[in-house]
Amino acid sequence: MFYTNSRSGTEPTSRNILRDVQGVALTEFAFALPILLIMTAFGLELANYVLAIKRIGDVAVMVTDNASRMGTRSAGLSVQQISEAEINDVFVGAQLQGNLPDFARNGRIIVSSLQRNADGGQWIAWQRCFGEGNFSSAYGVEGEGERGTSFEGMGPPDQRLQAPAGTSVMVTEIYYTYEPLFTITGVRTSPITEFAAFNTRASRDLSAPRNAESVEPSSCD
Prior knowledge:
single chain, 6 strands, elongated, four-stranded antiparallel beta sheet
């Protein structure tokens, strides 16, 4: 007589299940993949934020340098006159060279001409802006200090700038709201702010910018 064993050798047992390692690596990878993706995104986000800070700093220096060089000589004048068109060109150059395509929407460039008033005090003679970012100057608005000597100048309290007599200082403030690449990283960033200032590079007519070209001024209103 033949007897058959109902428990086949191929039937899984608890011991066989514990010894079965097929698919373990795939399971481990499935658990680790989200963590790896988050860590990679975090690194990319941080690197992009640092790069944006550097670009904004470079733009601040470029804008201030270009603003300090503005001006053309007219017949009969020994000093250079600046125009609204030249100011607009400085802002266009900043947008192109800054390589921040969303800057016009999220950022603000504020250029101020710091001069001495008739009383020997500091005065923001004119101020022009570019960008739709909801920011205003941290150091004063156009016309501030026109009379008297109470206005101390522009800049942080420990770096207050003052214009010498007979010339002007071009002051640039840049504010930019950084938008993250990945919202899943949870990286919290503050608005980027930069400040730069240069003396004007040549004798300049210190009156308000002329507008012979009839262009629309880049007002800060």
